[in-house]
């Protein structure tokens, strides 16, 4: 098994508009994510968890602290913005498949742009991966023609085509109904079991977090910081039967109060969703 | 997204199939018949007001029958009908001028717009000058254009070009700015270089906006052209309309106007069709979501 | 204000406008600095290309910015110059307001009733490609006075844009707002006043900004045509468009440019006015 994809978040601070309103979004947050781990980040809306993801991905700067992946410094106080790259690929909340390319063209985008694979090979690999995920039928359709659930899965395949060390998922299933969501969860796990990438998954849904994750980090409301870290000791591989298991319910009981407390604080502060 | 009954299945359709489906849907609705009522009302009122009731202000206007008779007559009183060669010469002249203006404006306007939207530096340097010149109405340029260009022909095309250029560049810029940030970020994650992002994300992403802009641009081009032709030109539809008025050939005025409308509409539709052809993904998306 | 001055982007903009003015100045004086022997081959080249030999093409025939400034200073104190301003402004505003008074209800009725839309929209769409200026002769024949003829054309110009924008705005109102209103027991008039009207307002505001630009175009054109075409009668057309035409006919090219810039400024001012009014009418948009 790979030892790639260890992410170290060291004492990261993010302050917006330091000279003006000085809004602190992330407050001395430290977290260590093991290679190949599914690490779930749970917190109320607007608490700053997306800021953390954006910092890892390289979309935002950090004010101080460091983020290191596999020994390589992504960003620090000296170089506050990481360079986005195919070693940690983001799957976006509202989906970011290019609507003007077919699903297959989307999927081969990464390797072809980087010159890692010739177009012919990329297409073969892409078709194989799509078939693996049960998406053969929609290769030549445009994203606008298929359901949102399918779009998410294609987007994940697009990411995995680049053999990344980590996947950064920013509430990807937020817009889906709960029935589709549970199917998506199983599909994600299936893909995960075949490609052991590190998964950094942001959500506000505690059940989703405990079902999928090895560990769940519950964040405080803004400024965000890990409040409580839960080890989910339910063994993998998991299926939806886990949802009604006794251990699952126990874990929810343990953490529900902490989550609810932060949610209440966020509600009273009138936080808007990020 | 629920598909309509009988809708083409995703991935199965040809472009022709999609069009046929939409036409069939249209014919089954009350829309074509309401449309006929609308035209009947409009034309009926025109006919009655001028020729039957002879309402006060309408009396002097050219009537529907006199216009139609003139337009379709093999030997027209005033020299312009669908049978006269001169008619088509004027149409060709106007269309040729608009074509020159439009293509020049697109060739210059789209790149400028793309750069304005994509490069902050470029925008900081170029946009102020752009925005200072843009509010000047195109027709205010007429005298200066006549001074600047030796031949009136170039002046007329220049005026049509100018308005087209501003519309195209502005809409292209807006198109680039309206692209969802996530697409650019996703491309960056996937390892695309700045140029690749521009080519594969920015340009296709801005295309819908660009084509809306092009449709506006061609309309604006006609607008300026007609004005320019009315003021200083020989040949052309604007010229016909003005001289027909001056020479008291009233039915020909209306012929000119109607022809303008038809030709203008056709050119605009051509741009739209070109857009549909280039953006198949959007057509499909919209067809499946037809409300 | 300080923030604007400290922003380097502002200075880059200023720099580019300065460069533009300098190039213009140099270009328009080309007749002078191209006089010496040294430039003969350049002149030969220009002649071969079909341009006038003695100065740079296009920009060489245009008056220099310095000359324009001088002319403007002279005109500044002339009362008739400011009269032209008010004349044009008045025409634009009245035409525009008329277009709104008729256009907004018309657009809304098309939006609200499918039958009305089926009957009215095709006719509207067929007439729309005919440029407003093509209506000038018909308008002159129909309307008793020159002023009313011009007003009609101005009205037409803005009318099309406003209707299209109202339609677009009304159709894009989220259907859930209607459902929410109905479930709270709203009558049809209530729904109109409290859902449709406010929902369409942003599009109307946007449409007004574009419509304002078109209105200026039409007013200027109408003023120039009525001035240039002396057959119409009436003493002075008045307005900035007429001012430009007079300057051209009188051979004062600097004044032409003065007129052009004046109209540009006037157009900008009226658009800003509208935008400000729009923000006042739709305060909820700020939060976005």
Quick recap of the structure?
Chain B has helices at 15-28, 31-52, 64-72, 85-118, 120-133, 142-148, 152-177, 181-189, 194-231, 237-246, 250-278, 280-288.
Overview of the structural elements:
The complex is a heterotrimer of chains A (274), B (291) and C (288). Chain A is α/β, with parallel strands linked by helices and 274 residues long. Chain A has eight helices and ten strands. In chain A, the strands form two sheets. In chain A, strands 6-7-8-3-9-10 form a six-stranded mixed sheet, sandwiched between helices. Chain A has two domains: 185 residues, 3-Layer(aba) Sandwich (Rossmann fold), CATH 3.40.50.300; 66 residues, no CATH class. With 291 residues, chain B is mainly α. Chain B folds into two domains: 61 residues, no CATH class; 204 residues, Orthogonal Bundle (MetI-like fold), CATH 1.10.3720. Helices cover 76% and strands 0% of the residues of chain B. The mean pLDDT of chain B is 84. With 288 residues, chain C is mainly α. Chain C starts with a helix and ends in a 7-residue tail after the last helix. Chain C contains 13 helices and no strands. Chains in contact: A-B, B-C. Chains B and C meet through helix 2, helix 5, helix 6, helix 9 and helix 10 of B and helix 2, helix 7, helix 8, helix 11 and helix 12 of C.
Keywords for this structure?
heterotrimer, B: 291 residues, MetI-like fold, 2 domains, C: 288 residues, mainly alpha, 13 helices
CATH architecture of chain C: Orthogonal Bundle
Helix content of chain B: over 70%
Task: Report the strand count of chain B.
Answer: 0
Structural class of chain C: mainly alpha
Rg of chain B is: 24 Å
Number of helices of chain C: 13
Distance from first to last alpha carbon of chain B: 11 Å
Largest sheet of chain C: none
